[in-house]
From TrEMBL:
Main localisation: cytoplasm
Organism lineage: Bacteria, Bacillati, Bacillota, Clostridia, Eubacteriales
Extent of the signal sequence: none
One GO CC annotation: cytoplasm
Transmembrane segments: none
MF annotations from Gene Ontology: DNA binding
Limits of the HTH cro/C1-type domain: 10-63
Identification of the protein by name: Tetratricopeptide repeat-containing protein
Length: 431
């Protein structure tokens, strides 16, 4: 990776396109002027810069990006790679990436990348169990943050020290640093609700380890409340919206903007998940129609994960799962699913119960239990009649008619078919 001056960028791009100085100059300027730009002996005007960008098929922004900005981006890459290798326990590789970053940091006097590299050195030494050295690096990192008023960057250091101390059974220090992290939220320096929930969680664990059960219970409740809000994405989005409105009223526009953006992102996620749920559910239905029950099952399971918090949709998924499992002759799993549906569908949900009876009838039929299949259709029919659900009543009669016809009971089949058709003709059921 290299940092290029403006002239070097022009020359590099010209070479990539196999163009001569004369080709680039065209009728706009002389080849000599292009040569002066490439050797950094002349700074191009904005008009010439626009011309060069168009001729060399790059953006003006590419040419205007400063060397320090390029170096900063390269350092971010090295830092990411170092952190990845630390997580993979490939510590020598991580150290090499940190060293690469240090060279750019020193040459271009990069402040935040220097702090990040000190943090990574701290992580590296912790993995090597060199805690004194690690904490020294993290202390140096915090000096940079403090000097340049980057208070929001403290959290990573505090949490790393706290977790390390907790693992090393230095519980008083761990609790102290978790509280330092908590203070960043209380002082309004940080507003990341997920991180705050994690701080509460670790405080609960640390206090339990130290034997202070009252404090552990206090922070367990706090973390639970936060995580419950966040697990319900819609409720969390509404919570963030209220925070945005509160900050707007108080005149904190930057905070209001941040919370509104977070809220919008969550609602976009909800819409995306809903769409993916529909896709997975309908893919399952398609495979079920093709009698490819293994693939259907796979897609229904994905839909189940997505719709876990949506009672209406998860019921639909479970109904299909029950039929799918029955078609795969997995009796135990099928009946477990039907029992789950029995618990989920409320007594007053008449349409839901009718659909469940119909699914149970199909299941019993697949398992060659004729009596069970008929009895469930009768239960569905009685519910439809009692609640005057004419459309469902007619549909169930048609199902029973087909069932009796398959069993050779022609007379009973035609009676039910005639009754069903009569209801439709009389306008009791929509066509």
């Amino acid at each position: 990776m290299e940092v290029l001056s403006l002239g070097e960028k022009v020359k590099k791009r010209r070479k990539e396109l196999n163009m001569t100085l004369k080709d680039v100059a065209g009728n706009r300027v002389t080849p000599g002027q292009i040569s002066l730009v490439e050797s950094s002996k002349s700074n191009p005007s904005m008009d010439l810069l626009d011309y060069l960008a168009e001729t060399l098929d790059v953006s003006v922004e590419y040419f205007m990006e400063s060397e320090s900005t390029q170096a900063d981006r390269i350092c971010k890459y090295f830092a990411q790679m170092a952190e990845v290798h630390i997580e993979l326990e490939e510590l020598d590789k991580a150290a090499k990436y940190i060293e690469k970053g240090d060279r750019y940091i020193e040459k271009y006097n990069l402040i935040l990348p220097e702090a990040k590299n000190l943090y990574l050195k701290g992580m590296l030494e912790i993995r090597k169990k060199n805690f004194t050295k690690a904490f020294d690096y993290l202390f140096q990192c915090n000096i940079i943050y403090s000097t340049h008023n980057f208070k929001g960057s403290y959290i990573d250091n505090f949490m790393l020290v706290a977790k390390t101390c907790m693992q090393d059974e230095s519980l008083p220090m761990a609790i102290s640093y978790f509280h330092k992290s908590e203070a960043l939220f209380e002082e309004g320096v940080l507003t990341d609700e997920i991180m705050l929930a994690k701080v509460y969680f670790y405080l609960a664990i640390a206090y339990k380890k130290s034997g202070n059960l009252e404090k552990s219970k206090e922070y367990t409740l706090k973390s639970t409340e936060k995580f419950e809000i966040m697990s319900d994405k819609k409720a969390y989005g509404q919570f963030l919206t209220r925070l945005a409105e509160k900050n707007e009223v108080e005149g904190n526009f930057e905070e209001a903007f941040k919370y509104s953006a977070m809220s919008l992102e969550i609602f976009h996620d909800i819409l995306g998940e809903s769409e993916m749920g529909e896709i997975e559910l309908n893919l399952g239905k398609l495979y079920e129609d093709f009698e490819n029950y293994e693939d259907a099952l796979e897609h229904y399971r994905k839909a189940e994960t997505i719709y876990s918090k949506d009672p209406k949709k998860i019921t639909e998924v479970y109904l299909h799962l029950a039929l799918c499992l029955a078609n795969l002759n997995r009796k135990e799993a099928t009946y477990e699913m039907l029992q789950r549906l029995d618990r989920m569908i409320l007594e007053e949900d008449f349409l839901g119960n009718i659909e469940l009876y119909r699914v149970k009838s199909k299941v019993e039929s697949l398992f060659k239990n004729t009596r069970g299949a008929v009895n469930n259709l009768i239960l569905a029919l009685n519910t439809a009649k009692e609640k005057k659900l004419k459309k469902e009543e007619a549909e169930i009669m048609l199902l029973m008619a087909k069932f009796y016809l398959d069993k050779g009971k022609t007379v009973d089949s035609f009676k039910l078919l005639e009754k069903s058709m009569s209801m439709m003709k009389e306008g009791e059921v929509e066509a």
